[in-house]
Amino acid sequence: MTEHTTDRTPDTVDNSPQNADWWRQAVVYQIYPRSFADANGDGIGDLVGITRRLDHLADLGVDAIWLSPFYPSELKDGGYDVADYRDVDPRLGTLDDFDAMVAEAHRLGLKLFVDIVPNHTSDQHIWFQEALASPPGSPARERYVFRDGTGPDGSLPPTDWEASFSGNAWKQVPDGQWYLHLFAPEQPDLNWEHDDVRADFQETLRFWSDRGVDGFRIDVAHGCAKNLAGPLADIGRPQYKGIHDDMPPGTHPYWDRDEVHEIYRDWRAVLDSYSPPRVAVAEAWVTNSRRVLYTRPDELHQAFNFEFLSAPWRTPDLAKVISESLHAADSVGATATWVLSNHDVVRHASRLGLPPGTDLEAWLRSDGHSPEPDRELGLRRARAATLLMLALPGSAYIYQGEELGLPEVADLRVEDLQDPVYGQSGGRRKGRDGCRVPLPWATDGPSYGFGEAPAWLPQPEGFGAPSVAAQDRDPDSHLAFYRTALRLRRELLRPGSPGSEVLGEAGMAEAEQLLHFTRSGGWECVVNVDGPPAHLPPGEVLLASGPLSEEGLLPADTAVWLRTSGSDSAAGGEG
Length: 575
Prior knowledge:
Blueprint: E1 27-31, H1 47-52, H2 54-60, E2 64-67, H3 95-107, E3 111-116, H4 126-132, E4 146-147, E5 170-172, E6 178-180, H5 195-210, E7 215-218, H6 260-272, E8 279-282, H7 288-291, E9 302-303, H8 306-310, H9 315-331, E10 337-339, H10 348-351, H11 360-365, H12 375-391, E11 395-399, H13 420-424, H14 468-471, H15 478-492, E12 503-509, E13 514-519, E14 523-528, E15 540-544, E16 558-563, E17 573-574
Parallel strand pairs: 1-2, 1-11, 2-3, 3-7, 7-8, 8-9, 10-11, 15-17
Antiparallel strand pairs: 4-6, 5-6, 12-13, 13-14, 14-16, 15-16
């Protein structure tokens, strides 16, 4: 890794209500509401269930929680098909329940993010229902992207644009026109050139901010602006992920267009009107050089770093991603983000136990048997990757259940799948349900403590073994490791403590066998990703992701945090 120095941002964790920069080094825990905790026994997670389990997150040591959508929805895409952006789905609770959850989170010292889905609505949204009831060319249809079809009788789609879930991105309505849906047909895309759309989403930001929300995660942030002027143009080739190298940056018809930044400049003004300012993080599947544009000082605060999540478990690949990500964030005065799992990807405890180059779609279609994952290897690497992630400057985003070392539930039956990806792809892609299976809280019961009834997605047999109850008092458990790492991270980044400044330098050691970087103030992170056992630099081991060899060497797939000599010591040990 190339050397990296900066002194722009105080590198501390200060989660107090008065600290406007709390997000820069925060650890944020993602909750998928339907799968976290079920309080009313209907098999579906809800807001009251979340509120009752917030003490688990406070004990874990995170700084904030992020809720995936909890709005009224037909659940055609796990809640990302929103019918009303300023209410709670009755199956998940009420606005009063939401207010109680916010109050309890804040009492426990936890900040709260909510998901905003601006690219598309549900087809049940009042605007879209009005559009369907109105004729072509009517003002109601202008809020969406309606177009006449092609061919002699208009029976062909307006363009060859492809939906992210597979298939053509247009659906025809009875009067012959077509509407754009870059995701499921039940998720019509909004027209962000329309003043009503811009004004309504600003009102939504204010609505939740007024209720005490501290920040927002912006779904498909790179997809709102589209080139809708004149006849729409075909792209002429497969479009999965959308961006093509031969297109000048910012010119794709519907992904990552330069005009999208006007939207977020307007949003930033709304966010900054609160004291302390509200925070926003972008989900933008774009390259480093384009992602940083979303985090310029007058736009959003952070953007998810998916290169880190998808990097192979190899020293050179990780070193390259880390170095480039730090430099990119620093170039606009932002801080980097780090994430290993979320609600859209195979859980990293399983992913890291698969052979390099495994086709994850094919692996899921095999119900997780071809190849068989190495569960022990996956957990060992997951711990090392977590220690690496938590040592890096910036914010870390944790997905629910990763603190338990949960695996991907890859063998869900086809009849149990809920994700539209399976149906729209004709079975070529199994979908994302395997990482969304409800959490196990107890060692037994109809849903292992998730609720009093079986869960909405089947949990596998033996799911009580990695449950919270099974791990809670085990000092060698995965959960104990997370608690120790998060507590120690907070101590090391405490204002005025050694290591409270920004990353001082980073460099490769041991002939590129080790990933090794130093945090200013006297602590270091050393990871043996894939090399032979290696000597550690001098210093006190504060925390190790796994045991060292009898000779004190650092084995492969193991990470340590070190306190260099001459610095104050801190409690730690092997997790």
